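S.,

Sequence below, as promised.
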Amino acid sequence: MSLKASVESEIKKAMLAKDKDRLRALRAIKSLILLEETKGGATEQLSEEDELKLLTKAAKQRKDSADIYQQQNREDLYAVEMAELTIINEFLPKQLTEEELEAELKTIIASVGASGPKDMGKVMGAASKTLAGRADGKAISTKVKALLS
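The prediction came back faster than expected:
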């Protein structure tokens, strides 16, 4: 089932349950999908990779907004952003733990043949493709630096 179809199904469930917060977040996701599908006159559906990028970007935006609201002591807006982030995360793949990330990166480093910090670009390229959606780019970068130094 495509992301769009599963979001539409969840929208119907939220409407029946009269869950306004969930409905708002799901409609935001659907809006992003529709905007991306119609961008540049495209008429085809999004690939899974594009859907994953879209959701990851939306989750990052919600997290950044929530951090700003928390710094400004706006707990009401912080709660809204965190609720939306939770719903967006339902559609994203399970995030890797620190140990799982390190194990995956060691495998990638070995397969690429990286030996030091100068090979970070090669490792990051392979890691970004392999771990897309399952780990944050900043976390990958930090761990790769630690492993290559």
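Helices lie at 3-17, 20-38, 48-71, 75-91, 98-112, 120-130, 137-148.

Coffee later?
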